[in-house]
Amino acid sequence: MAFALTPEREKQAVALLERYPEKRAALLPLLWLCQRQHGYISEEIVAWVAERLELSTAEVKGVVTFYTMFFDHPVGEHVIWVCRTLACELRGAKAVQEHLEKRLGCKAGETSADGRFTLLKAECLASCGTAPMVQIDDLYYENLTAEKLDRILDEVAASGPFYDREARERFEADRRGEG
Amino acid sequence: MGFSTPSPKILTSRYHLEDSFTLPVAMKAGAYAVAREVIGKKSPESIRDEVKKGNLRGRGGAGFPAGVKWGFLNPRPGQQVYLVVNGDESEPGTFKDRTILERDPHRLVEGILISCYAIGAHKAFVYIRGELRFGQLRLEKAIEEARARGFVGPRPFGVDYPIDIVVHSGAGAYICGEETALLNSLEGRRGEPRIKPPFPAVEGAFRQPTIVNNLETIATIPGLVEMGGEAFAALGLVPGDGGTRLYGVSGHVARPGVYEAPAGLPLRELIYELGGGLLDANRQLKAVIPGGSSTPVLRPDRLVKASDPQHPLHAWDGKSEIDVPMAVDLFRALGTMLGTCCATVIDDSVNMVEVTRNLMRFYRHESCGQCTPCREGTGWLVDVLDQIAEGRGKPSDVDLLVEIANNMMGNTICAFADGTAMPLLGMVRQFEEEFRAAVAAGRPLDVRHDTTTRAAFQGGNR
After folding, report:
1. Distance from chain centroid for Cα A53
2. Cβ distance of A86 and B358 shorter than 8 Å
3. B-chain residues within 8 Å CB-CB of A31?
4. CB count, 10 Å around CB of B218?
5. What residues contact B308, with CB distance under 8 A and at least 6 apart?
6. pLDDT in tens, A100-136
7. Which chain B residue lies closest to A136 (C-alpha atoms)?
8. How much is the ipTM here?
9. For B342-380, how does the pLDDT look when each residue is reduced to its tens digit (9 = 90+)?
10. Which residue in chain B has the smallest CA separation from A130?
């Protein structure tokens, strides 16, 4: 079946195209919309976006592969990024990674056998003052301890796939609780 | 995270308020008052003048005077001027801009409105790194609120000067913090830096004259304009660096976080007063990366040599490197850079070869690959460092690191290669004995960086 955005996202896509003086500039935001819906950028999506913005599929693919947050292959229902750069590593990033590998039964760079979590290493996520930290889908989880991380994973595991729900509410609620 | 801020507070004055990110709360505490007062009422030229007088050094890392940058604009008739706000905060060790997005996005919106008016722009793009989704949502919400009140739109504060703000999300690429890579990314391309000239002020976004400023720089504008350039400049503790700014401190300190303080604070105060001193009091301070990973490392036990009275650092002759005020020009004279003003603090549990390896892996991952010296050089540096760390190093490897770095410097389109080579050379210069010892040992290094903190993760409370 050919790819199509949901009616709500389609409305957002139309609005996006209005924002820039050139059509092509909508490429990154449009890819974001697609990935939030589908979980990754499939070949079908590449073709759909290319047609929509009057670009070649090679140009679209070139952009997709340049940026680390766009996936060109299926990933788990939730993606966990462990920040590994210096400030986090000084505060225990390796322990975080080891803890997650043990719990998920997969190495960094892999997806758990049940397909629910993909574990990735990330370069500095601009959260050095609250290290160690991970990003899960759209959210940051900071000042981690093993216990806190386990609790977070339980919550995330109990929720549906990331792209089925709106991150915003959860995000806000989370922050308020912490603040 | 602590936000204790010694007076005066400008950027962080609303951080502590409940729901500080919402329009009613921000407005009650003064948001948009300056924009309302100046847009359409003062001349754009007079605002640019104040910014110049304020000695506002760009907060993104290079420290270029913001007022001078604005002065480069000279649009031809019919050209659109754009303001682009660089919120691609990605320099390892840096986490300050994020706090503005999350805690006071209205300050940024107000700064954008005033800046657009001052430089003759009607449209601003705010480029936010993709990972900072939460901050991005807060900013989008803030813009919506400001639009509903008419502050953003065809007639801000009833003045016939339309201003539109567009938020553009990145998707994971450190290089997009480089201004021309950012412009390519904004235009829907791979984030590869452009050859300069032309500089963005002549040919930037969509081939129009463009000013690219760091997010904190723009958020500073309302406060600067409110108090006037001279008063703002006087806040700085040393000449040439005006105002207050956001300092970050992370790594092995007791109170990591973002703190607002006057420009020119000595590193020692950032670490021991704002940062609360070392995390483990039984450890010694070993090294400080002063302003993001691209800034060469400093050693507290190294003394400033500046006996010549003409030397810019003469006042600190014989003092520790960390006693020099954190100011753009003084830090350059010290052989490092102020960068983003966010320090990474390292205690003596850590091996500096491993620190270097950690950072060089970052650069290998983030090189855009356009220029050969950078694409290959970053990889070679990691390969040689791996060899040393794994106990297979040769005595010549330390010199090889230096040679590779020297071949990268100045041979590429953008400053990324220099930003890799400089810290590498700094590490070898400051800790050469440690590199030589690692080679001589001929066995794998203990690769744990987190001996000071591991127990806290396993069982502790944070």
Report:
1. 23
2. yes
3. 171
4. 31
5. B314
6. 999 999 999 999 999 999 999 999 999 999 999 999 9
7. B131
8. 0.94
9. 999 999 999 999 999 999 999 999 999 999 999 999 999
10. B1
